[in-house]
Design a protein that fits this description.
Elements: H1 4-7, H2 14-22, H3 26-30, H4 34-55, H5 66-72, H6 77-90, H7 110-136, H8 190-205, H9 212-240
């Protein structure tokens, strides 16, 4: 006689985890969790692309910050970005840039570089949570279809088309190659990090995603309040010393 408990044991989905590493959210889509997949893809993808855009290509420097790169590499495209950066560095290993051989990217420094590294590394750590979730999450059944969204699924918008390579030299700013001048706005850049953490965590933990907006907003408020209290305590401590 078969044991019913053995039959109901959850199955692993390592192939879905691999897909989610290549493209955040893809693993959940492959097991039928389409709404959850879109939320994870938009949140983690936006955070990773945001860090890439803020700090430029040089934030994916394994040689300069190997510890941070361990977090970044949890999103597969980080490997390609690091390989491109290393290729550009090897071009000038025997000399300095010249008009005939200019750098293909603009290095970032200070808080812009720190924000770019933080965004991309945190995106990788959040993707790790999504990968662990998709390994054990059971595939979506037809009975459960439609529970976590009000209407039919809307196809995701296609990714933006990059400008032709011939137009890039005409632009003063080259997206993803040059950093953004956000040195004075570094404190405001913490808010997207808090929102991303809340959305990804609640997307994984909640059974019904209809509760996601309220739960994510509540968690974001709690994180911000904790940050303010810690900052106030540190300020008071430094004043007393």
């Amino acid at each position: 006689m078969k044991n019913p408990h053995v039959e109901s044991e959850p199955t692993w989905h390592p192939w879905a985890a691999i897909a989610g590493w290549v493209v955040p959210g893809l693993g959940h889509a492959l097991i039928g969790q389409k709404t959850r997949a879109i939320i994870l893809a938009v949140t983690i993808g936006s955070l990773w692309l945001g860090g890439f855009l803020i700090g430029g290509i040089c934030v994916f420097d394994q040689q300069e910050h190997p510890a941070w790169f361990l977090g970044q590499v949890l999103v597969g495209p980080s490997l390609a970005a690091n390989a491109y950066l290393n290729h550009q560095k090897l071009r000038f290993i025997d000399g300095k840039p010249s008009p005939d051989r200019p750098y293909a990217y603009e290095p970032s420094y200070g808080r812009v570089n720190e924000q770019g590294i933080l965004y991309t590394a945190l995106a990788g750590l959040l993707n790790l949570l999504a990968l662990l979730d998709v390994v054990y999450r059971q595939p979506r059944s037809a009975k459960d279809a439609g529970k976590d969204h009000a209407g039919p699924a809307r196809p995701a918008d296609p990714p933006p088309v990059a400008a032709p390579a011939l137009l890039l030299p005409l632009l003063a700013y080259r997206p993803f190659l040059d950093p953004l001048p956000l040195h004075e706005q570094w404190l405001a850049m913490l808010l997207p990090l808090v929102i991303a953490i809340s959305v990804v965590y609640k997307t994984i933990k909640l059974e019904h995603l209809s509760e996601l907006p309220r739960q994510a907003a509540l968690l974001s408020a709690q994180i911000l309040a904790f940050m303010v209290l810690v900052a106030a305590a540190l300020l008071l401590l430094t004043e007393m010393l």
